[in-house]
Here is the input.
Amino acid sequence: MTTFSYQAVDAGGQRVSGVIDADSARNARAQLRERGCFPLRVDDAGAQLAKRRALFGHRIGSAELCLLTRQWATLLLSGLTMEQTLTALMEQTEREATRAVLAGVRGELLGGASLQAALDRYPRDFPSVYRASVAAGDRAGQLAKVMLQLAEHLESRDALRRKTLQALIYPALVTVVALAVVVGLMTYVVPAVVGAFQQGRQTLPWLTRMMIGLSWLVREWGWLACVLLAAGAWTLRRALQRKEFRQAWDARLLRLPLLGPYLRLLDATRFASTLAILAGSGVPLLAALDAAGRVLARIPLVAAVQDASVKVREGMPLSRALMQTRQFPPLLLHMIASGEATGQLDQQLERAAKLQQTDLENRTALFTTLAEPVLLLVMGGLVLLIVLAVMQPIIDINHLIR
Here is the structure.
């Protein structure tokens, strides 16, 4: 049985679309005609998805996955079967790529595969943490409850990401505008205004001469600077794909005074929230550590989780194993130790994740609050230097006239 996506016209002349299960495309068209619909297009959902991904690389985004998970859990709680739930989700979603993924999952389930096996076919759309949580909830018979917890976890993580991006938008815009203004002044204004004084015999002030030289460099060799910057960025990106270089790069970043603690706290928050949802879903601790380690961005912390996993397998408590790596914040370690002592590891991890997320938001707000005036002062200082370089020859001529 194959799942086909279709577009058809019903008896009232309205265009309809959806999915249908059939042995072949011809059988799918026959079923549509039996329903009183005239088929316009019938495509294999799996083949359609593969073609789209080969061309455009479509996948389910984080915000869409949050909404999809909450809708999935709500439909299951309302008493619908898994097949009915997936059908409803396919009819609800507007993106064709998402509809094709859901059709593929539904087709796998109708073919006798488990839900975990069906989701494993789409690792780009459903992260390892997602698949592990769903599999644990399915085995325990608490799939709807687990998916509600998973939806809250995804929404919390997506909210943190959006807040961070929104906080960095203004400083980034100020930086871009400042660079554009300075380049414009150096390229057009300075040569046009100061060029008139170069024809005279008076000696120009050193600041004016310096600005003239910088203006010449920007006009004549600015393109080369852009090429070198692009080449440097490309080289760095290629180098970061090598594990040895990436590990050294991440280790250096984590040692920086302000950025290092922020990046460490960001990864610790991801680790705690992911481990909390997995532990609360009933996933074994070692499997949960393996999945939680995959959400970390910095290689030293990934290696620390892997070392801790080996020690936990040998019988060491998780809190002590993580403490020996010296990579995670003390607050998280103490909360994990408390959770292990009271048998409430998932709850303590969730509390730790919320505390760390609040700390992250406060640090981000402080950074943006300080960055905005600093950027404005730097921009104002550069513009002031350019204005002084232009005005000094005029002031000197006035003194000579007097």
In short: The longest strand covers residues 2-9.
